[in-house]
Design brief:
306 residues, mainly beta, Immunoglobulin-like, Glucose Permease (Domain IIA), 2 domains, seven-stranded antiparallel beta sheet, five-stranded antiparallel beta sheet, 22 strands, 12% helix, 40% strand, globular, disordered N terminus
Length: 306
C-alpha cells in the first residue's frame, strides 16, 4: 500500500525543499536524508504512481493554525474535506488516461485561521505509460449503430454525464475500496481497441472475469445515481462516493438496486451478465474522479481510513 508523502505547508521556503525531497522518494521508502521536524500544517500526498490513469489523495494535517486547504492540479481544483467523525481532511484528484507526460504544477492553498492564505507550488513529473492494444469482433449494431439507435445513445450519454456532474461535498465511502468480484481481471484498463477493423476506441475501465449470474458488489459505500439498461453499457449501476468519486458497473444481467438508494460497501448491485456491447459474461468496472478516467485497481491501493 502506498505510504502518504509529507509536504510541509509552512514556512514556504522549507516547504518547497521538503516537497522536493519527499516526492522523489519511491513509495514506502524513507528519504535518504533525515528531515527536520515539521511545524505547522502538513499536506500529504498518497498515490500508486504519477502516470496517466492514476488517482491521488491529498491529506491535510493541521496543528490548529489552518482551517482548510485547496489543491489545483491538471486544470482541476478541489477543496479538502473532513471525513465523517472528524478524522482525516482530504480530497481526491486524478491523472486522466490521456494526460500528457511531463512536468505539471500542483498549487496548494492553505487557509489559516487568522485569514492568511499561504500558497505553495510544486512541479510534479507525470511519467509516460504504454497501454495494451487488441482487436475485437463485435455485433455490427454496436460498432456502427443503426440510425434509430443513435438518438438513444446520445440521450443515454447525456444521462450518464448528468448523473456524474454533481459533486457531493462530503465523503460517503467507508474505508478502502474493495473488489466488486473476486475473479481475476484482464488488466485491460486503457487498452486501445480496433473494433471490427473499423472503430478505434479506448477502454476506460477494467474487465473482471466474473461468471454469469454471480453477485456484483459495491466497491465502496455511496449513493446510486444511475441504475438503468444502456445501449452500449447494458444494465449499469453508477455509485456516487462523494468528493467527485464515481464507480460504474456494467453489462449486468439483472439490477438489484434503484437510483437514489444508499448502499454500503459490498452491497450486491446486480448479477453478472453480457448485456450491451459485450463479447461475453464479465463485469466492466470503471472509476472517475471529477470526470477523470482512473484505473480501478489503483483505487484499491489508496490508504483510506475506515
Amino acid at each position: 500500500m502506498t505510504r502518504p508523502r509529507a509536504l510541509l505547508a509552512r514556512p514556504v521556503a522549507v516547504a518547497l525543499a521538503v516537497l522536493a525531497l519527499s516526492l522523489v522518494a519511491p513509495a514506502g521508502r524513507p528519504p535518504d536524508k533525515p528531515q527536520a521536524q515539521a511545524t505547522g500544517p502538513i499536506i500529504r500526498l498518497a498515490y500508486r504512481a504519477l502516470q496517466p490513469g492514476e488517482p491521488i489523495v491529498v491529506f491535510l494535517e493541521t496543528d490548529g493554525t489552518a482551517k482548510s486547504a485547496s489543491v489545483t492540479f491538471l486544470g482541476r481544483t478541489v477543496d479538502l474535506r473532513p471525513a465523517p467523525g472528524g478524522r482525516s481532511v482530504f480530497a481526491f484528484l486524478g491523472i486522466d488516461l490521456r494526460a500528457k507526460p511531463g512536468s505539471h504544477t500542483m498549487t496548494i492553498k492553505v487557509y489559516k485561521t487568522g485569514g492568511e492564505v499561504e500558497t505553495i507550488r510544486k512541479d510534479l513529473e507525470v511519467a509516460d505509460k504504454t497501454f495494451p492494444f487488441t482487436k475485437l469482433q463485435l455485433k455490427r449494431e454496436y460498432v456502427t449503430p443503426p440510425a434509430a439507435a443513435l438518438e438513444r445513445i446520445k440521450r443515454e450519454a447525456e444521462l450518464v454525464a448528468l448523473a456524474t456532474s454533481v459533486v457531493t461535498p462530503e465523503w460517503l465511502g467507508d474505508g478502502p475500496f474493495a473488489l466488486p468480484h473476486d475473479a481475476p481481471s484482464w488488466s485491460n484498463f486503457g487498452q486501445r481497441r480496433l473494433n471490427n477493423n473499423v472503430l478505434e476506441s479506448v477502454h476506460a475501465g477494467l474487465d473482471i472475469r466474473a461468471p454469469f449470474g454471480e453477485n456484483i458488489r459495491a466497491a465502496n459505500a455511496g449513493t446510486v445515481v444511475l441504475a438503468s439498461d444502456l445501449y452500449l453499457g447494458g444494465k449499469t449501476v453508477i455509485i456516487d462516493h462523494g468528493l467527485g468519486v464515481f464507480s460504474s458497473y456494467g453489462h449486468m444481467s439483472k439490477l438489484l438496486v434503484k437510483r437514489g438508494e444508499a448502499v454500503k460497501k459490498s452491497t450486491p448491485l446486480g448479477l453478472c451478465g453480457s448485456t450491451g456491447r459485450s463479447t461475453g459474461p464479465h463485469l466492466h468496472w470503471s472509476v472517475k474522479i471529477l470526470d477523470v478516467r482512473i484505473d480501478p485497481e489503483a483505487m484499491l491501493r489508496l490508504p483510506l481510513e475506515k
